[in-house]
Amino acid sequence: MMNRKIILTLSCLLVIGLLWLLTKESNLSRNGSQIGESKSPKKQLDTAIHHLEQSQSKKENRGERNEFKLPIVAKSELREEYKLDLEKDNFFDKQSPFKFFGSGGVGKLLGKDGSLLLQSNEQQAIFSIRVNPSLSNVVALGGSSPNHAFSKNGKLLAVLPKAPAQGQINFGSWHWVSDDVLVGDSGDLIPHKHDPEKHGAEGICEGCYAPLTSNTRLYTFNVKTKEMGEVALPEQLQGKRFTILRAVYDGTLEIADEEESYMGWVKINPEE
User: What is the Cα–Cα distance from 255 to 78, expressed in whole angstroms?
Assistant: First the structure.
């Protein structure tokens, strides 16, 4: 009887020991597997990039963008009426030391002494020029090609930025608001979502049109300091699309909405 109890006790201890060993081996195997799967720095970087790309893809699908905000460097005010001094406004065309010859993007810009400042070619168009209030600087407008600012002595002051930031439309035009500061119009691009039924395999929508921007923004560029900033728009213009019809000698812009309905005048006041 005693021997049977001893044998039973030993058997139980043996079973318990075996179970303990099996459990420990299982834990070691699991830990070893985790250690073996521990990512190297390169794999960790690749994983982080993958997650970032997935996150960015989700944002793009939701129409979100990483936005780079430029500082507010000028204020503006909307005026329904503006008294234009035609004699003073025409002064610039009569007295400008700069001369432009050409049309349709083909032409050349000459300085005060007749020297060639810029000439159109296959990569560079020149549609028009604008002279600053003191007649000392000029900007040559190249459309989708680069825009250049020159001094009357023929010095290239700046090649103007193409767009404010990624996700924004290229500048449409530039206008002087002071001797050194230009204002340009841009806007936030509407994210394009490809619809095979509407746009076809090539992504071209035949017979349909969507605006390129969700709203218009104004930016200034200083040809002396090469600094760019955003113009704070009056409340009436925030979130709206509008175009610049013309600019006059004191930096006031005449604007209209996207349907060419008259909106008024906007006076740009660069902060000192």
Answer: 10
